[in-house]
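Weekly sync notes, structure subgroup
Attendees: PM, AL, DS (notes)

Item 1: joint prediction request from the bench team. They want all two components modeled as one assembly rather than separately. Inputs as received:
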Amino acid sequence: MSEKRLAAFDIGGTSIKMAFLTTEGDIIRKWSIPTDRSEAGVKIVQDIARSFYKELEADGLTTVDVLAAGVGAPGPADPEQGTISGAVNIGWPNGYPLKKLLEEAIELPVFIENDANCAALGEMWRGAGSGTGDVVCVTLGTGVGGGVVSRGMIITGVNGSAGEIGHITVVPENGFLCNCGKKGCLETVASATGIVNLYKAEGKEAPDARTVFEFAAAGDEAAKRVIDRCAFYLGLAIGNIANTVNPAKVVVGGGVSEAGEALLLPLEQYVKQFTFPRAMDVLSIEKAQLGNDAGVIGAAYLAKVMTV
Amino acid sequence: MSEKRLAAFDIGGTSIKMAFLTTEGDIIRKWSIPTDRSEAGVKIVQDIARSFYKELEADGLTTVDVLAAGVGAPGPADPEQGTISGAVNIGWPNGYPLKKLLEEAIELPVFIENDANCAALGEMWRGAGSGTGDVVCVTLGTGVGGGVVSRGMIITGVNGSAGEIGHITVVPENGFLCNCGKKGCLETVASATGIVNLYKAEGKEAPDARTVFEFAAAGDEAAKRVIDRCAFYLGLAIGNIANTVNPAKVVVGGGVSEAGEALLLPLEQYVKQFTFPRAMDVLSIEKAQLGNDAGVIGAAYLAKVMTV
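Output from the run, pasted for the record:
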């Protein structure tokens, strides 16, 4: 009998990524199923269980061959209570008892975390953050997500709101209104939407962030100012996170980070400007490496460390 | 034979606070000795050891009656290496092997941390932060110090620079120059010195922060703006720390916090303005309770949790 494997599920608003991994974090096999959001998402747990058993049987295995399952879900998690809140994309009520329901359904220990936190754990374990247990991840997508890993474990906070990097206030006065109700959040200026907002504030129009980067590369001064301003705000947030938790690596991922050096070079300068010199001595900025696999790899890590 | 006691030393630039505590954190006895900074502070460890043995004997006890010692020191600590760096007030070279030297001198396990981090642990254990393991402390004195406690333990960071709350950038453009070399650090606007700086920027003069608070209470508009601005910057920093680590309590101490409601009432409003709503749901701002004892109580806590 070979070593036991880990199961990992990354629940998103449109699909659920599922995988089996070795206890070293190598993906043995991965697949995905659609997220059935009907009836406030009540079918999701059974859908996961059914697919899990089917794929396990296909490998000639049973639950005895699985150590535990880790799950990432899109909302603040309470790992001790085993609940997820604010998963509005899925329709679950606040305090949804995901851990308990899934443990009943797959008859294995289940450990849950917020999906952005799982991605941070994944990059820490097997991605751009490997080699250190002190990593901060920032994901620049439609919004800005994040996770703070200290000594190999996620900082979850009192009610699962730690690592809300997208809601760090970087424009304390006259900032754009954020979906969260605050103003001047990082997400309002450093997400794909935020970059379009900044370009609009220059009196110009672009359909998406990618276009703003293209305009900047072609010499458009307003677009160049927007990219610089985005890097400035992101550097301010990252510098202040570094002054608070003193990580070895900040891993930047998500669609906006695909802009590459156009964003990352000015970002490094701003991070240096805003970080306490001693904290800067040990800090590097890295591009995320795991892409969409970060979530399942981090969920598997969670299952591993919580089980041993 | 009664239960073993803890020893705690809080090393400052002018005096070393020493204490014996129960394992519940009650101070059995406390005293202090002067800090001998001559010859780059080489005599300090022996001074501590001599005083420790003398007071222990006075109680009719020996080292067998002591579980361990915790030490706070004024510089970034590397708890794993057992070294202190940047203790310029004392004269020690970077990477001073405080743990090893003190363990040899008192023949007990010794655990070290930065002094501001010890104070945070103290307030978490027995002060304004008690009842939760997720506490951030901010000490507003000549400078601004801090400590971040998550799940009952200090976040030290990769090289002991976590919790450098005084060096969070709150004025990203055109800020005052800080001693650390950066500009716009919280310390430049929310310490006693910072408040005087802000008043000077209003074109007015005051000998100290206390006077600025007195002027504000007497109706001086410039002084009132300064206090509001100080609360604004402090609220911005605290809000962004809350967005990062999601604590239950932020404990504000130090001389400037003695201003009381004049500072704390506007501060609460600004913290609310800058904190992610879900993180704000569980957050309260508290005034520090332990005063100068916070350091030894936190050092004792460190000794306790590292020993068991």
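Discussion: Chain A is about 40% helix and 20% strand.
Action: AL to compare against the crosslinking data before next sync.
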